Amino acid sequence: MKMDHLYQPYPSIRNTAFAKKGMVATSQPLASQAGLEILQKGGNAIDAAIATAAALTVVEPTSNGIGGDAFALVWVKGKLHGLNASGPSAKSISIEAVKEKGYDKMPVHGVIPVTVPGVPSAWAELSKKFGKLSLKEVLAPAIRYAEEGYPISPVLGKYWGLAYKKFREILNGDEFKPWFDTFAPKGRAPLIGEMWSSPDHASTLRSIAETKGESFYRGELAEKISSYMKEHGGFLSEEDLADYRAEWVEPISTSYRGYHVWEIPPNGQGLVALMALNIAKGFDFSEKEAVDTYHKQIESMKLAFTDGKAFITEDKDMPLSVDELLSEQYAKDRRDLIGEEAIFPESYELPKGGTVYLAAADDEGNMISFIQSNYMGFGSGIVIPGTGIGLQNRGHDFSLDPEHPNALKPGKKTYHTIIPGFLTKGNEALGPFGVMGGYMQPQGHFQVMMNTIDFHLNPQAALDAPRWQWMKDKQVLVEPGFPNYIAQALARRGHNIQVATDNGAFGRGQIIWRDPVTGVLMGGTESRTDGAIAAW
C-alpha cells in the first residue's frame, strides 16, 4: 500500500503525525507519554502498550480501570495474534439467583453485574509472550502518576463531573461508599486543571507488577475483592478469580476491496463491523459526501447490528457460526433488502434445526491494537476499599431470558462491546485502528475503514470526518457537524435523523499506519477528546 494513497485532502482539526522509531496514540497525553518513555528505555510496542494501558487506568478512570476487561490484536514477526481478556460471570450466579434478588433484568450498578476482570491478566500475558522489559519497569510510569498525581484534562474533567452527579443521585447503598472515597474525596469530582492522585491505586499497580498479576487472581488482592463481594451479596468468589487467565485466540477477518480487516472473534462485537463491510462491499461508493453513500452505509450497519445483537455471545452458544455470518450468501441476503428507503430491521431468519483504545508501533515492525474498559464509564460503581480497584459491570449485557443466545449462565462470557481492529494487505501489516464507545464501536470501525479504503483519507482525516450512529429501528444520531443537507436528504428517505447536542456519543479513535517499504509510521488521534500522539 502506498502511503500517498492516504494523502487525499479533507478538512481536519489536527494534522497527521509521522515518525520512524516509534509511536503511541491514545486519548490522554500523559498516557501516550508513558508509552513513549518505555519505547525510549528499550521496550517494544507491546511494552509501550501495557505502560499506556496501565497509565490510562490512572489518568482516565472515567473510561477504564484495573477491574475491567481488555482485548488485543498484536502483530509480531509477520503474524497477527489475538488476546481475549474478557472475564466470565461467577460460577455461582444464575438467572434464578438474580431473579430471587428481585431483578427482572440484569442491573447496571452494584455487585450483581460484576464479572471477572481481565485487565491485569491481559497485561501479564502480553508481557510474558512479547515484552522485552519487566512488568515492574513497564508499570512504573502509571505508578508514578498515581502516587504523585496529575492535573485533570478538559474532557476527562467534564465526564468525571457528569459521572459524580449521576452517582450521587442513584448510588445510595453502603457498598458504593468506597467509590466516593476514591473518586470524589473532596465531596465532589476533581476540577479541570486540579491535581488528583490515588495512593491506593499505586499500591495495587505495584502489587500487580511485582507478582506479574498473580496477586490480583491468586493473592492478597483476590482476597480483598472476594471478601467485599461476599459482604455485599455479590457472586464473584476467590475461586472465580483463581481460575481465570486471558485466552489467546485466532483473529477473524473479511476481505474488503483488496484489504483484510481483522477483529477479535465472539464474544466480542467486532463481527458486526465485518458483517457490515461484507454487505457494503457489494455497492460502489464513488463519492463520500453523498446521500446515497450514507443511506447504504446506515442500512448495511443497521442489518449487521440487528443480527449481531441477536446472535453474538460466547462462540459455543451462537445459533449461527462466524463463518455463516461472514459468508457471501448471508451478505447478499441482507444486501438485497436495501432499497431507496430506510427499512425497519428484523433479525436474520435462523436456519431451521465507558472504554479506552490505544495503538502502538515500534521500529522493529511490531504493532498492537489494544482496548480496555470498565463499561458505562466507571462501571459498576463498586470500588474495593484500600485498592483503588473499580469493578466493571459487563454482566449487565446478559439476558435473563433463558432462550436468548446471550442468556446468563454460570461461568459464561457475555456479548462484549470493546473491540480492537487491525488492517493488512497481502502479507503486510498496515497497522492498528480502533474506535471506542459502547455500541458505537463497530459503527466507528466501519466508518473509519470506509473513510480509509473507499475515500482514501489519511488517518487524522478518517477520524475527524463527521460520524453517525444507528440507534434502533430507523433512528440515526448524527454529530453537530454532520452536513445538514445530507441529514435532510436522509430524512426524506425515511431515516429518523436526530442531531446530537455534542459529539460525546460518537466514540474516540486512534490509528497508526506503517509503510511496509520505509517503515515510516503515520498516525491520527481523536479530536473529540484529549487525544494525543507521542512519537520519536
Show the helix and strand layout.
Blueprint: E1 17-19, E2 22-26, H1 29-40, H2 45-59, E3 69-76, E4 79-85, H3 95-100, H4 119-130, H5 135-148, E5 150-151, H6 154-170, H7 177-183, E6 195-196, H8 199-211, H9 214-218, H10 220-231, H11 238-242, E7 247-249, E8 252-256, E9 259-263, H12 270-280, H13 291-311, H14 322-325, H15 328-335, E10 356-362, E11 367-373, E12 383-384, E13 389-390, E14 421-425, E15 428-436, H16 441-453, H17 459-464, E16 468-472, E17 475-478, H18 484-492, E18 496-499, E19 508-514, E20 521-525, E21 532-535
Parallel strand pairs: 17-18
Antiparallel strand pairs: 1-20, 2-10, 2-21, 3-4, 3-11, 4-7, 5-6, 8-9, 9-14, 10-11, 12-13, 14-15, 15-19, 16-17, 19-20
Helix pairs in contact: 1-2, 1-5, 2-4, 2-5, 5-8, 12-13, 12-15, 12-16
Overview of the molecule:
This protein has helices spanning 29-40, 45-59, 95-100, 119-130, 135-148, 154-170, 177-183, 199-211, 214-218, 220-231, 238-242, 270-280, 291-311, 322-325, 328-335, 441-453, 459-464, 484-492, and strands spanning 17-19, 22-26, 69-76, 79-85, 150-151, 195-196, 247-249, 252-256, 259-263, 356-362, 367-373, 383-384, 389-390, 421-425, 428-436, 468-472, 475-478, 496-499, 508-514, 521-525, 532-535. With 536 residues, it is of the alpha+beta class. It has a domain at 23-88 and 117-248 and 356-393. The strands form 5 sheets. The chain has a 7-stranded antiparallel sheet. Strands 7-4-3-11-10-2-21 form a 7-stranded antiparallel sheet. It has a 3-stranded mixed sheet with strand order 16-17-18, covered by helices on one side. Helix 5 (135-148) packs antiparallel against helix 8 (199-211). The longest helix has 21 residues, at 291-311. It is globular.
